[in-house]
Amino acid sequence: MVRRARNVVRGSxxxxxxVPVGRIRTxxxxxxxxAGVRVHRALRxxxxxxxxxLVVGALVFVAFTALQRLQLVAVAVFVGLVLTxxxxxxxxLFARRMPRALAVVVAMVGGLLLFLGLLALVGDSxxxxxxxxxxxxxxxxxxxERWLERRPFHLSHAAASDLQGKVxxxxxxxxxVLISRALSGASQVVQVATGLALAVFxxxxxxxxxxxxxxxxxxxxxxxxxxxxxxAGQAAWHAFAGYTRGIIxxxxxxxxxxxxxxxxxxxxxxxxxxxxxxxxxxxxLVGSPIAMxxxxxxxxxxxxxxxxxxxxxxxxxxxxxxxxxxxxLVMSWAVKLHPVVIAVSVISGTIVxxxxxxxxxxxxxxxxxxxxRELRSDAPGRQ
Length: 383
Hints:
Blueprint: H1 21-26, H2 31-34, H3 41-69, H4 71-94, H5 100-149, H6 157-173, H7 175-219, H8 223-264, H9 270-280, H10 287-302, H11 305-335, H12 339-377
Helix pairs in contact: 3-4, 4-5, 4-7, 4-8, 5-10, 7-8, 8-9, 8-11, 8-12, 9-10, 10-11, 11-12
């Protein structure tokens, strides 16, 4: 420490220290910095974000592994939320005139009767056209065989008969394998029925007392976090309900286009195929082409190759409308996400978890983004 000079005039500037500048700047700093090695600020920020992202990625991996183990339960809860989004508005409407519990029962029974009515309508249509469809199917196979015998295939009648014989031999040889696969499919049907029962059970309580269940979860949080997380939960539910409304609009529009086209082309079983298209649209990107492939097979058997080719063209046109125009635009309006984000999330979900991942990708991304956006709006400095 440098002593003050004795003859210093008051009000004048004090004498500066004689300590070298380099020592002042390097005092208290790490030896690496004193030696001249400095870490760029961008690299320090990137490293800080990197280890946080690694922690988040590990948590996501653990959660995804747990969901894979509990796939049936997770899918059942998801279906229960979908049923809740569909039946909650009529239940709230009925609750204005009757007790809440009775309104929930009326909404659930009404939805079940509507679903069973659609199944009965499909069964009646199939029963009425079954006999004619059998003869049309055999005639369609004959047309296909004659079509293959002409240009440009020039398939002989003996080769076609030999192909039919090989198919019959394959079925008889691999009968045990087919039966075992059918039995495994039956066990999967039991699992699906169990998951559906769990979904209905959960939806009943979600419709009746969903707010009370959410309030209980909210009250377990710290006092300062209750208000922002309450708004985040409401935003998440609005996003999920918007997704449900959007996918129903897309499915209904797609099924209407398909139904009109099948009726104009006089394809057998137009009504069941239309309902199949409606439910298949809930699986983005892949559901509608699969349903239209079934319609193509029916058209090929019942109406011949020309009608089947027209239905095949219809698959391409409606697939383009549904995949690149209708689905992205409606879902972007419903869940407030850009169409590119929706397309990328659907493809990523398909790669990660198959069909289930394709179905749940858009609602999961929309719910997560709505929660993040609500929490960011409540953060300090963003008011």
